[in-house]
């Protein structure tokens, strides 16, 4: 069991061969992992011209969640340069799509002491903000030694992660107390973090509620809907993960919803071809979003093979199923669908969004199902019942608006 940062660092060095192989293995499916490799060890060419506010968002979900906070920081600190760090190419691409040249982007280095020192030496951030559950022991310690305040924002800690961190509680407690403060999503997240030894913990809510659906994407979604057919029922399967498409297709086979159009959007772009191959094997008539052509009458499925258009997909559907929840992936973000006023169905695995799911179900915005068969039954019920659909739609809008304000509360915590 690891009891100290020294032991943790020794383990990192023992795993170095595996760490070096990781981008090579991932590049088999996503070649972008071979780009900017030097950055992962703390070597950078970026040269910020202004004092740096550094915000770390691992991948797509964290980057999108950070948007309202990045916008607020840019408004309140125009004399600073915002640096957004990531660990995945899709996170980096999302940052570029959201912010363009407004922010600097790079990879955060692996948590080796020398790499961490190079990162901090190069950018000299005035403040650091780590999104969600990013506890980097050497990085946080080195920043504390340099008196750089580092905050954990939009923090969440599932029961599974809580149990893992408890296995090396001394190291975790020391690290958490080197943070300037923690902004937790919920009271349950705050309780778990406090149990691990954190002291300055505040419940600020979930930043994802503060994300406003872009007007241009809502208009794009309305244009898609006209292509789909205004009267044709549309079920969206959003952010689907490996293995879930087959379960969904099996469950929907023979479903009695006239002229149903299913829109499948895989979570990761490297799976677009995999899902297309599945549909071809099953002999299902489908079209790709990337084809950008009129939807022919015999098309049963649209394959959403595009990135950065999730709000448009929500705007074009009647009902949204949230992927990552049929199998034990912990679910993807249901808040965006609610913000567009769409009824939501979500599966049994929701540990990434446990509190949001509980509240959405309680407030009538979402239905939680146990498996794919129940998903099909509930989807048919909602799509056939206009009154129920409208009631859930209004509840979804009310739910998303009720829980806004995390950005303002987090901004009030920051001191630098």
Q: What is the name of the CATH architecture of the largest domain?
A: 3-Layer(aba) Sandwich
> Distance N terminus to C terminus?
36 Å
Biggest β-sheet: strands ordered side by side in the sheet: 3-2-1-4-5-6-7
Strand content: 5-15%
* Percent range of helical residues: 40-55%
CATH top level class name of the largest domain: Alpha Beta
Structural class: alpha/beta
Quick one: overall form? Answer: globular
Radius of gyration: 22 Å
Mean pLDDT: 95
* Count of separate structural domains: 2
CATH topology of the largest domain: Rossmann fold
Specify the CATH homologous superfamily of the largest domain: 3-Deoxy-D-manno-octulosonic-acid transferase, N-terminal domain
Number of strands: 14
Q: Please summarize the sheet with the most strands.
A: 7 strands, parallel
The DSSP helix count reads 18
Question: Regions with pLDDT < 50 over 5+ consecutive residues?
Answer: none
Structure description:
The protein is an alpha/beta fold and 416 residues long. It has helices spanning 5-14, 16-26, 60-76, 89-99, 113-123, 137-145, 159-166, 169-176, 187-195, 215-228, 244-252, 272-281, 310-316, 335-339, 354-362, 372-384, 386-402, 406-413; strands at residues 52-56, 81-86, 104-107, 127-131, 150-155, 181-184, 201-203, 234-240, 261-266, 286-288, 301-303, 319-322, 344-346, 366-368. The strands form two sheets. Strands 3-2-1-4-5-6-7 form a seven-stranded parallel sheet, with helices on both faces. Strands 10-11-9-8-12-13-14 form a seven-stranded parallel sheet, sandwiched between helices. Helix 3 (60-76) runs parallel beside helix 4 and helix 10 (215-228) packs across helix 13 (310-316). The chain is globular and about 65 Å long. The two termini are 36 Å apart. 44% of the residues are buried.
């Amino acid at each position: 069991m690891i009891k100290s940062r020294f032991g943790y660092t020794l383990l990192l060095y023992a795993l170095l061969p595996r760490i070096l192989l990781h981008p090579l293995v991932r590049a088999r499916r996503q070649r972008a992992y071979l780009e900017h490799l030097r950055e992962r060890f703390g070597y950078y060419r970026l040269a910020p011209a202004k004092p740096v506010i550094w915000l770390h968002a691992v991948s797509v979900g964290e980057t999108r969640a950070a948007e309202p906070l990045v916008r607020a920081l840019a408004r309140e600190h125009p004399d600073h340069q915002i640096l957004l760090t990531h660990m995945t190419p899709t996170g980096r691409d999302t940052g570029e799509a959201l912010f363009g040249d407004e922010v600097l982007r790079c990879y955060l280095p692996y948590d080796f002491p020398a790499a961490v020192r190079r990162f901090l030496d190069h950018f000299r951030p005035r403040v650091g903000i780590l999104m969600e559950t990013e506890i980097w022991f050497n990085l946080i310690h080195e920043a504390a030694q340099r008196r750089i305040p580092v905050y954990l924002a939009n923090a969440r800690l599932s029961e599974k992660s809580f149990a893992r961190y408890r296995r090396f509680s001394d190291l975790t407690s020391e690290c958490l107390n080197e943070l300037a403060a923690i902004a937790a999503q919920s009271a349950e997240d705050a309780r778990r973090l406090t149990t691990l030894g954190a002291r300055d913990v505040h419940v600020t809510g979930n930043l994802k509620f503060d994300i406003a659906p872009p007007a241009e994407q809502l208009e794009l979604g309305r244009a898609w809907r006209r292509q789909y057919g205004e009267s044709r029922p549309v079920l969206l399967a959003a952010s689907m993960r490996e293995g879930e498409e087959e379960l969904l297709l099996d469950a929907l086979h023979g479903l009695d919803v006239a002229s149903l159009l299913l829109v499948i959007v895989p979570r990761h772009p490297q799976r677009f071809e995999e899902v297309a191959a599945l549909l071809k094997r099953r002999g299902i008539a489908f079209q790709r979003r990337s084809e950008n052509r009129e939807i022919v009458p015999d098309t049963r499925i649209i394959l959403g093979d595009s990135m950065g258009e999730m709000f448009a997909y929500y705007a074009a559907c009647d009902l949204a199923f949230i992927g990552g929840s049929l199998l034990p992936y912990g679910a993807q973000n249901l808040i965006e669908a609610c913000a567009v006023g769409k009824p939501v169905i979500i599966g049994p695995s929701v540990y990434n969004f446990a509190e949001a799911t509980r509240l959405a179900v309680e407030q009538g915005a979402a239905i939680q199902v146990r498996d794919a068969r129940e998903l099909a039954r509930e989807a048919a019920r909602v799509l056939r019942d206009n009154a129920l659909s409208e009631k859930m739609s209004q509840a979804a809008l009310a739910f998303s608006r009720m829980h806004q304000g995390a950005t303002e509360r987090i901004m009030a915590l920051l001191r630098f």
